[in-house]
Write a structure and sequence with these properties.
This protein is an alpha/beta fold and 117 residues long. The chain is built from four helices and five strands, in the order E-H-E-H-E-E-H-E-H. Helix content is 36%, strand content 15%.
Length: 117
């Protein structure tokens, strides 16, 4: 699983739309409005993607999702929708991280205080 880490309005959704167009993987969003936005954005960009869906799509018991690969837009919001709680922190071991270096500070000290919380 890859992680795309960028600040707000820096192209995270655009990156997922590009990947979806390339791989055919479905983008999952926290709600229908967000999914509609992704579909409209892809159309505006002239990219053909499978219809972006809300998390409700994955809970549809009438459809077998085994073997399906998905892309998640705004993980925190999707987790909140699925778990119905606020998530304070997560841990994971990613295969690959894509970071927009324009969003990063040159000083490692600014990250030390963040990770000590």
């Amino acid at each position: 699983m890859d992680y795309i880490l960028k600040s707000r309005a820096r192209g995270k959704t655009y990156s997922l739309i590009q990947r979806s167009a390339r791989t055919g993987e479905t983008i999952i969003c926290a709600n229908r409005n967000m999914a509609r936005y992704v579909n409209e954005k892809a159309k505006d960009l002239g990219m053909s993607i499978p219809e972006a869906r809300s998390v409700e799509y994955l809970s549809d018991n009438n459809y077998d999702h085994s073997g399906e690969k998905i892309l998640i837009d705004e993980l925190e919001q999707v987790l909140k929708q699925v778990l119905r709680v606020d998530v304070s922190a997560i841990t994971d071991t990613p295969d690959d991280i894509v970071i927009d270096t324009k969003d990063l500070s040159d000083s490692p000290d600014c990250y030390r205080s963040y990770f000590r919380k």
